[in-house]
Amino acid sequence: MTQPLVKVEGLRKLYPLHKGVFRKPTEYIHAVDDVSFEIAPGESLGLVGESGCGKTTTGRMLVRLTGASDGQILLQDDGSMIDVAHVDRDGMKRFRRRVQMIFQDPYESMNPRRTIFDTISEPLQVQGIGTVAEREERVAELLEMVGLIPAPTFMFRFPHQLSGGQRQRVAIARALVIDPSFIVADEPTSMLDVGISISIMELMLNLAEEFDVSYLYITHDLAVARYMCDRIAVMYLGKIVEIGPTEELLANPRHPYTRALLSAVPVPDPSSVRPAVEIEGGIAKAVNPPPQCRFIGRCPWVQDICRRRGHPPLEDTGNDHLVSCYVAKESV
Amino acid sequence: MNETAIERNGGVQSGRPILEVDGLVMHYRTKAGDVSAVEEVTFALGRGEALGLVGESGCGKTSVAMTLIRLLPDNAIIKEGSVVLDGLNVAELTDGEMRKHRWADISMVFQGAMNAWNPVYKVGDQIMEALEQHFPDMSEAEGRVRIAELFELVGLSPAMMDRYPHEFSGGMRQRAVIAMALSCNPKVIIADEPTTALDVIVQDQILKELRKIQEELGMSIIYISHDVAVIAEVSDRIGVMYAGRLVELGATDEVFPRPRHPYTYLLLSSTPSVVGPRRRLAPLEGEPPNLLAPPTGCRFQPRCPFAAEICASQDPPSQELAPGHHVACWHWEQVPELGRLEA
Amino acid sequence: MTDRLVDPDPSAAPNMADVVAEPLWQVRLRLFWQGLRSGWSSFAESRIGLVGLGVIVLFGIMAMIQPILIGTVWEPAIYDPVLGYDAVVVEKTIVPDNEVTDPATQIDLFSARLLDPLLQVGDTLVVTVQPAPPSRQHLLGTDPLGRDVLSQLMFSTRAAFMLGIVAALVTVFIATTVGAVSAFFGGAVDTLFMRLADLIILVPFLPILIVLSALIDFQLFHLALLIGVLGGFGGTAIILKSQALSVSVKPFIDAARIAGGGHLHVIFRHIIPNVLPLSFLYMMFSVTDAISAEATLSFLGLLNIDMSWGIMIHQAWDQGYLLDPNRWWLMVPAGMSVTLLAGSFFLVGRAMDEIINPRLRRR
Ligand SMILES: Nc1ncnc2c1ncn2[C@@H]1O[C@H](COP(=O)(O)OP(=O)(O)OP(=O)(O)O)[C@@H](O)[C@H]1O
Ligand SMILES: Nc1ncnc2c1ncn2[C@@H]1O[C@H](COP(=O)(O)OP(=O)(O)OP(=O)(O)O)[C@@H](O)[C@H]1O
Ligand SMILES: [Mg+2]
Ligand SMILES: [Mg+2]
Fold this sequence. Notes:
The structure holds three protein chains of three kinds. Chain A is built from twelve helices and twelve strands. Chain A is of the alpha/beta class. Chain B has a domain of about 210 residues: P-loop containing nucleotide triphosphate hydrolases (Rossmann fold, 3-Layer(aba) Sandwich), CATH 3.40.50. In chain B, the strands form two sheets. Chain B has an eight-stranded mixed beta sheet, sandwiched between helices. In chain B, strands 2-1-4-5 form a four-stranded antiparallel beta sheet, with helices on both faces. The longest helix of chain B is centred in the middle third of the chain and has 18 residues. Chain B starts with a helix and ends in a 16-residue tail after the last strand. By secondary structure, chain C is mainly α. The longest helix of chain C has about 35 residues. Chains A and B meet through helix 7, helix 8, helix 9 and helix 10 of A and helix 6, helix 7, helix 8 and helix 10 of B. The structure holds adenosine-5'-triphosphate (ATP) (2 copies) and magnesium ion (2 copies). One magnesium ion binds next to helix 2 of chain B.
């Protein structure tokens, strides 16, 4: 692989369970626990998992909305990898130009009192890029690019005058306005109707090619991840349990959790039969989790080794496909 | 009328269907005019059958359900049609008469109901309150036994009935909603978006649970979802709605491999899947029509790739292509096989 | 929630060529004007709001024409609300003691002889009446010092407006800033402001003012500032903070930070504009508070001001006329004015509440 665009190493986020004023908190939610991955320039990585597994927290750490408790986030900048947690003011400014985010909720991610022009040009405005006229031109250009045509009729509307799909297009335009190289997209289509969400996904794919941006694409839907991503990382309770190229991972899922997820995804084809891997119960919160494998409580394959040893490390099984499971590895 | 309904049911089930809907038209009166939310909807639901209704947001799925169970807002008017539930025309009953049949004969899991539990009362107490309305003679102890039974049925521990809603996860809250809908042993249950806000794994668990309960109790069920994939998993037959109309109705095994209505076709080709070849998806262009002033002729015509002159002037009638497979389209022959549009 | 696709009125969108040619400030002005218009049209749907606004406008007119009247038809020496004097002269017939049937035209012999011992029954006597009942010259009569009540009433309206508006502006300015800052920064800043607010709410307002007025010479403007400051750091700050808090956790705040916006940008461009409508609402309620507080304090004689509705009531009381139905003009007009103006601002506030608070908005 060439030099990655983003490299995450041992990323961790602990949230204290109770915010005590007088006593130090002893219980922590391990929202993200020792997560490492790389994203190549122009590549899109899907982050998939059940609700509460730490996808959003990971994404927010990558855009520095949330500070990491531990670990490193490195961003390629002119050929060298820069630790984004330790940049000065100037470095932060550069970082803000290169990394953007698209949010899940098209209704809440735009200030209802600002026009579409204000919303899209905000990064330009706060970073002092261009004159007002240039910004207007740039916004119009982007509006056309995301399919809000003719641009001037949308420019000075307010968010409530747009439909959900149109707003998500505006959100994409806002993320692209300063030519970033990396975008975190947190479930950008999960609140939209099927037809509309496909057109948003198409748009994101086309623009990724055109602008050469990388995505961290967060979703709980493997079918969407398959459509959008070059590689998929499956997360469970703060840990990445399996990561690999999309088709490889879907064709040969190794981790029992990936298999369960895959068998639970509804398929628009009544004739397809898939092996049922059922797991019980729902996801819990990882509060001071025991050292063993996180999945141990719900795993249908659990064996002695899983109980004796710590959380299994991510190991390569070939084809760039990594899995964190003692049993899956043995069955290869 | 009843005979045609049976005929249309295509002999999927033997005997008389439990529910027959014929030519149903329901409008909402608003200041801006009439919203034609349900237009000429005809279908039948066999005994023990699972029927899926699918369509974009705002196409009238919930409106159909609410008409069947007769829980309509004041501004709704049933203009035409009949809803025959086990031999009884529900559309003609008075509100008082309907009250006797609602929940006992036909019941519903409402869209978003899992988020509607009152946070200050225990879940069991809230179900008890509903039970008391239907079985005034039931003692508290009997009620608790019944709730415990219902909880077991939907896969909840009976001890949960003394817990508050916030102690339930999303999936558990939805299970409790289903338990409540089952409380009077209905013959027909309508599940409106039963898993929309839930995770895939929980969704899968709940859909399996519903299927199991349906078989155990011999109920008929109408699933409503905007997700064709969910409908494909759970229903024997599928009805596709567009802008208040049922545009295609047929056995799931027939419609999915070979949709005949352009809308069904586009809906299926814009649904990503984890199985099958990875293909580029064709987005559905345009936006659904404003139901205050629906387009003339076929309602799908403004967005339809096969639209011709006749489509804009005349409303296509529903045709039966094969036993039980109905399509309302002038050009159903032109609809290609799935995945062939780009070629 | 799923996507509801209703194309929101494309006809409202500006024409393409117009937008390109139009400079940005002009667009903004037009949007502002549009916003104002649509705000007005939803306000106009509320009957109580319109009634309130009507009454406020009426008082506004009263306040404005008083100085004009003084300059033109009203002789300042007579009609000045503070320094004017007019002895209303009435002729009364003297009747035997205990036979007075009409006090307005008759006087008993005993009382008359107190003024002039030579008077007899049947004579007429010229007396000056203070307070004088309503007449052609003095539509609302005169007060115990012979001053025109209507002029006083109109003059005081100005004071009431000044007081209410200054107090409200100060309240809202402080409360909005305090609320937004505390919500955004949280932590120690928040704790400090919130404890201060608790303190202000806990310590009763009136007793403090009584003590303060004993210590310093209280002018109306001081009172306005004080009410504003106390309101601003007190209850209103807590309410606006909770609003700011609910705004500050919205994803668009995150989006602004990702865009590179600093603290000030986020507070002033995103949080405050979304709190402002609620601030305006509370501004209406603080006008109500300020007007009532002034009336109370003046009634207690704690303010060093020349004339106000409160002072008018105070004087009526001071001279022992407070509950005298025969001297209603001393008390009723001023009391009604306090109630009406304070109530009207409250009504306008309630009407705005229905526009601003989506929970109350009827769909
Ligand atoms: N600010 C916070 N304070 C405390 N706990 C938090 C906070 N944010 C997230 N968590 C916890 O961290 C865990 C991971 O949350 P996160 O939002 O990252 O999950 P997610 O995978 O994005 O879920 P979803 O699919 O529901 O969006 C959850 O258990 C959540 O309760
Ligand atoms: N009480 C009402 N008054 C007026 N119009 C209504 C009313 N309820 C629903 N509608 C309109 O009727 C149409 C159908 O609504 P309905 O709720 O049945 O759609 P749906 O298919 O269930 O959508 P969703 O997937 O969003 O739940 C929509 O256009 C909606 O705006
Ligand atoms: Mg999330
Ligand atoms: Mg619905």
